[in-house]
Amino acid sequence: MNFQLIGVNHNSAPVDVRERLAIPETQLPDAIRTLMQQPGVEEGIVLSTCNRVELLTSSQQGSDLREFIRAYFGVSPDALNSHIYEFKQREAVRHIFRVASSLDSMVVGESQILGQVKEAYAIARGLGAVHSALEVLLSRAFAVAKRVRTETAIGSSSVSISSVAVQLAEKIFGSLNNKTVYMVGAGKMAELAARRLMANGVGKILFSNRTHERALQLAEAFGGQAVPFEQLHETADRADIVLTSTGAPEFLFRQEHGERFLARRRNQPMCFIDISVPRNVDPEMDRLDGMFVYDIDDLQAVAAGNSAERKKEAERAEKIVEAEVERFALRMTSLAVVPTILSLQEQCETIRQAEIDRIRGKLGAITPEQEAAIDAMTRGIINKLLHTPITTLKSSASEPEAATIHEIVRRIFNLNSEKPNK
Description:
CATH superfamily of the largest domain: Glutamyl-tRNA reductase, N-terminal domain
Mean pLDDT: 88
Largest sheet: 6 strands, parallel
Strand content: 5-15%
Number of strands: 10
CATH topology of the largest domain: Beta Polymerase, domain 2
Oligomer: single chain
Structural class: alpha/beta
Radius of gyration: 29 Å
Strand order of the largest sheet: 7-6-5-8-9-10
CATH architecture of the largest domain: 2-Layer Sandwich
Distance between the termini: 34 Å
Shape: elongated
Number of domains: 3
Helix content: 40-55%
């Protein structure tokens, strides 16, 4: 294994750091191409969600992923060093297994992260950035996530960042009955939130999205009203709660907007729950009397209650992940000896064929039966001679001395030279 993973998440960095590294979906191909140009990187994938930005690579020794982050995002080292985590080899495998299984999520057990990892994998694979080692690793990560879902109850109830946002709104207002909610953004997060809002008896839902057709679809599905995105600032004051989940790279709502909203609402309180990264709502709006702004990091307290309920199932899931990490490590270690075994077999077969060709002229005319007998006899000798070294290579693959045995076999049979001695 030669895996490297580097990144930031909701545990290591606040939202104002994460949003500086967030990569819009439309820019992921460019980020992956740039990553693949980094010295030593052979394969790579970029995962960017509201709670994490991570780079996973299969690379040669000495590749510097920190340098890529500094160069690509234009962020100084001092601003990142205390927030970045970096894993290699087995630890990188463990981390990606935990991420795919939602054990590293703000809301433990949420199902969206697996889809996000699969989407990032599909983009990287389509660009040819995933083709061998990462293909094996990510395929196994998806299988591990499925096993966790099947063998534990960690995802038994529907949980997501959106559902936690709705829980927060309930805590603030006590009840959502007769409340008007404005959904800004019409992606998966918005759809999940709308479903949860309807289940909790919200009075009315307004939908607005840059692509108006998508807002119309959600409005029809949930009995709400679609508002053209151009009318966002003219209509937002109709809502008691505004929930934003767009990919906009800048603030959609600033302090001056909040002042106008409060004036039109005659100072009735208004709540913004911003689950976007980068953020859609300027935190300065929270300074206004009657205006309450919560970003995705504020959801952690609510999410902590969810994770506490799932603690027992999460512990079971962690054991599954640990067993799968060990299994994967053994598999990859075993694969490391395959090239040596194949070289050894190829070299011996070359020698066998050369010796048959050399002696054939001295034997004179021989029958097909005799030819087959010579072939079977020499092949049998080679197989018996190779049995012990091949068995030793396979059985010692997971042992501490594996590298030493591997090198001894290559030296004894002269496998390090370009051409075998005949």
